[in-house]
Amino acid sequence: MKFYIGCLLIAFITGLCSFCYGQSSSSVHGNVFIQHNLAAEAATVILLNQPDSSVALSALVNNKGAYAFLNVQPGSYILLVTRLGYKKYYTGSLQVVAGQNLTVNPIELSPASNELKEVSVVSRRPFIEVKPGKTTINPSASIAVDGKNALDVLRQSPGVRVDNGISLIGRQNALVLIDGKQTNLSSTEVADLLAGTQANTIDRIELITGASAKYDASAGGIVNIVMKKGKNIGFNGTYTASAGMGRYYKLNTGITFNNRTKNTNIFGNYSIADNKNYSDILTDRFVNDAGAVSNYQSTYHNIQKNINHNFRLGADFNLSTNSTIGFLVSGNLNENDFAKNNTLKIKRDGLLDSTIIAITNIERDLNSFNYNINYNNKLNKAGENLSANITYTNTPRRSEEYIENTFYDAIYVQYRSPLLLQNLSPSSRYNWTGKIDYANPLQNGAKLEAGAKISVSNSDNNLVFGPKIGDAYISDPTYSNHFIYKENVSSGYLNYNKTLGKIDIETGLRGEYTTTSSNSIGLYTSEKIENHYFNLFPSATLTYHKNDKNDFSLLISRGLERPDYEKLNPFLYFLDLYTYQSGNPYLKPEYVTTATIGYTYNQSISVSLYGSHNNGSKLPFYIQNDSSGINILTTRNLGTITTYGIKLDLPVTFTPWWGNNFAIDASHQQYKAFIQNGNLNQGVIDVVFTGRQDFKISKSISASFLTHYETPTWYGINHFKASYSFDTEIGKSVLNKRGKLSFSVRDIFNTVRDRYHTDYQNNNLSQIIKFESRSQQFRLNFSYNFGKTTVKSAPKRDIGNEDEQARMKTTSN
């Protein structure tokens, strides 16, 4: 609480000082569009002194159509707007008054002529763009983007952790959005979705650490994946294909298309990936039962064949000049076959006692279908806007597992009949989400945003677990269970933006009321757990624009992370007869308060000091019965985590053909367990280094080399050894620059694996985990852009008063 109050006090003092300082400064800002209300991205806006027309300031229009001039001296000005292929636009006289912020009415550019030649559009965006509170990743800037999926891009992005989930702040899982909408999936399902999303279908990935109140409260930041949607009139698309080899094959192919006319835009993509992977887990566990020491050594090997279908089909229709309605259907279909082989050797006082071999076959299908209707209405030229979304998500799962356990004594003689087990765990889950957002630009550079959201979720899970007796499997009431979980979240927010001279202030407050109900129904027992809680989540961002290249910021926010559905589910997941995994229906949300002070230079170099306090952290926890030797891995609200750290993003261009991007995240983390979970009070240092070097070999050939290193660290009660990896990729443009051929190697030296040890309470175990999905792979990738790759202006119909309209598009205070 003291930490949080201190953060709010800092924000108040800084805001007060900023207010006083900003009273003498002025700013000019507005928006520029082309036909069909599209942002005039990369248009140039020039502020000219009146009457001599000398240049005072200039700015570029961003991808949302916005521009801004800060610290403008009082006086009379004219705006000149230019963009390739469009007529120059001049405003009337603008009067800038000291201490006031001038909002210029939206400007719409007209095509240069009806006979305008086609103009090729070439993307020049860098791979990484940095702004206070947000880092943007542009996958298309990677030379081997065609062979990657969304998860690959995130792994190579500075400041992003991809291990037990995806996180930006500490190790709290980030909220993952697709086009600003929640996926309503667990962390494991999100990873599967991203692994099936081809990177070349993504326009950009926004990594948001300074999220405003209009986003759902999130403890670990927000990852917003914005999919491609063509902005140019005409039909175009991209075909991709990739083939790779690790220990096993990896194949994928896909197509992305877009067809835009004057009043409609139809877009979509489809991809299919056929991969075969392996995973190896070596576990060494010691159990001390009243002085008798047993050793459980297991060698687990899994071969997984996965076929993933990912599709997206949408359409936007212009109902009028200012209103649009859109429809979107998307889905991810996962077909998985697992062939597992686990050898467990049990030793008593150092001597081999027995061996149990478990052979398992699993057929598991996990599908996700999303249906969305969205509406957007620009209520007036001043920028007042109303939008609404309704989304339905359905996630069915089929899982059939059959296990054969064979038992051998110390001299490897079978001493009993095999034990055959059946594990059926089908589930169905759905979510309805409705939201409405309203934005109203106020006078003097201020903006008010408000919104409301309702989310209704239902998860129905059935577990039938038991042995085969005779010719039929029976259900064991000790393990079989029917688990029903319901969750309703109602939320609302207010967000206020204000520019005071060189300072931008954004403050917001979000309220969320949550009700949950879980019911675990066994053959003989039934347990129902209900929770009701209301929370407020304030946020504040102060950004000081010293000049065009130097920005300073202060970010403060409070968020939470609710438990995944799968971590609440109390079902037991079988590894061997002595090792299980289980959910925990008593899990509570964890709450995180974060403060960050940052500096950004030229939207590329950034350094930030951050601190966070996590209360009720959800972490892995082992429950071991020393008498039986059974060990269950579950999740608990372990305790608190207090973190202080520094992040540095440093792009460096050594020569015109050699560029680098280095990122370092160094932190001190203090773990402290709640008393019921033991006496953990551990302070650790964690340093993560990522490096990217890009080489321009020729006009058509580029190469990159990527490195990652993390020092030995702790994650709750687990002590991890250092991890490191090296990737490389090379690409060449072909077929008159419509095609691209690339070759990539992931984990060149085959070093990626998780290695950790646990020695806490009565648990003493070590584990080495090796996944081929994160290890040595060679890929050859190809892409081809078809259809219209140029911009041509749509037909323009004169209505007789264009000049008068242009004269009326002046200013509004």
Descriptive tags:
813 residues; mainly beta; 30-stranded mixed β-sheet; six-stranded mixed β-sheet; disordered N terminus; disordered C terminus
How would you describe this structure to a colleague?
- The relative contact order is 0.13.
- This protein is globular.
- The strands form six sheets. It has a 30-stranded mixed beta sheet that branches. Strands 1, 2, 5, 9, 10 and 51 form a six-stranded mixed beta sheet that branches. The chain has a six-stranded mixed beta sheet with strand order 12-13-18-19-16-17, with no helix packed on it.
- By secondary structure, the chain is mostly beta strands.
- Helices cover 6% and strands 64% of the residues.
- Strand 3 and strand 4 (55-60) form a beta hairpin.
- Mean pLDDT is 83; it is low at 1-24, 114-123 and 791-813.
Mean pLDDT: 83
Shape: globular
How many runs of DSSP E, i.e. beta strands?
51
**What is the count of DSSP helices, taking H or I runs of 4+ residues?**
5
Q: Oligomeric status of the shown chains?
A: single chain
Give the low-pLDDT segments.
1-24, 114-123, 791-813
| Helical proportion, percent range | under 10%
Query: How far is the N terminus from the C terminus?
Result: 42 Å
β-sheet strand percentage:
over 45%
Q: What structural class do you assign from the helix and strand content?
A: mainly beta
Largest pleated sheet: 30 strands, mixed
Question: What integer value in Å does the Rg equal?
Answer: 29 Å
